[in-house]
Amino acid sequence: MIFVLSRLMLACLLLPLLWTAAHAQAVSFPELSSPVPGHQDITYLDLAKMVVPDLAAGDDGFYKGSAPIEMRHIIDGDEGGLPPESINLPNAAVLPIKTGGKDRLTMLFDLGQAQDSAEGFAVLALYDLTGKPRLLDAVNVATDRNSYFRDPGKLALGPGDDALITMSMHFNSSQGYVSTILILVRDDRFEPIDRIDTFDENVCTYKRTQDLTFQTQGDEPYAAIKVTVTDATAPSGESCEEAAPQAASHDISVTYHWDASKSRYVADSDAFEKLSAENEKRF
């Protein structure tokens, strides 16, 4: 009996030291004309019009508008891309979060890309729905053509705080380019934690993928975040002119800790910067 109790006590002591894997969080895509749950007099279109003031339903099922409100880019500040000349929006991604112990709603609007631009324009918006709905913050999170919430779309940093995870990407015939952004929501404002660039290839002789996983540990004041890129190469087995590489897989991990003196998350290595530089050589 004493042995069992000792084992139980040890397990309880070690529990805060264990990494918790991130689980998928439900991102929804409601019809913009539908009411926001708990707010029958407010629709998602009402919230969207705080970002694109003249947004309105078109005859083709899309929502039409012109320019969004002014906003900064989450990574590049004032140096982000331009919105398209006209907006045709089919829907928006919706994800509830917590920040500072308060319930908030986030929406991601992929507005498309301006003519002759290689980069899209995607708005991540933060709303307070207590009382009269308010737009608290809005940023452009696009770093490539198409932007989404990742799966998972958020990470629990503690009982009252979540981090968000967005991604931008595009593909060509044999290559896939993905940029992932970790975002902290603090004082009702979006703050970047880091950008992680990955690169996939699918050619005759092999397929090489770089997949991300997320884990958290602790919660004072914000959990540490461990991000792992699994870089895996698998021979195709096809008959090709070039010799196939051997199967291989290795993990590249970076852990982000909250630095109270700097009031931001700090990475424990530059491994992802090196990975990005290596990937660029394969473009």
Biggest pleated-sheet summary: 9 strands, antiparallel
Distance between the ends: 62 Å
Question: What general outline do the C-alpha atoms trace?
Answer: globular
**Mean model confidence by pLDDT:** 91
- Pattern of helices and strands: HEEEHEEEEEEEEEEEEEEEEH
Roughly what fraction of the amino acids lie in strands?
A: over 45%
Assembly annotation:
single chain
Runs with pLDDT <50, length 5+?
2-15
Helix content: under 10%
The total count of helices amounts to 3
Computed Rg: 21 Å
Going by helix content, strand content and strand pairing, the class is mainly beta
Q: How many E strands? A: 19
Can you describe this structure?
The protein is mainly β and 283 residues long. It has 3 helices and 19 strands. Strands 1, 12, 13, 14, 15, 16, 17, 18 and 19 form a 9-stranded antiparallel sheet that branches. Strands 6-11-10-9-8 form a 5-stranded mixed sheet, with no helix packed on it.
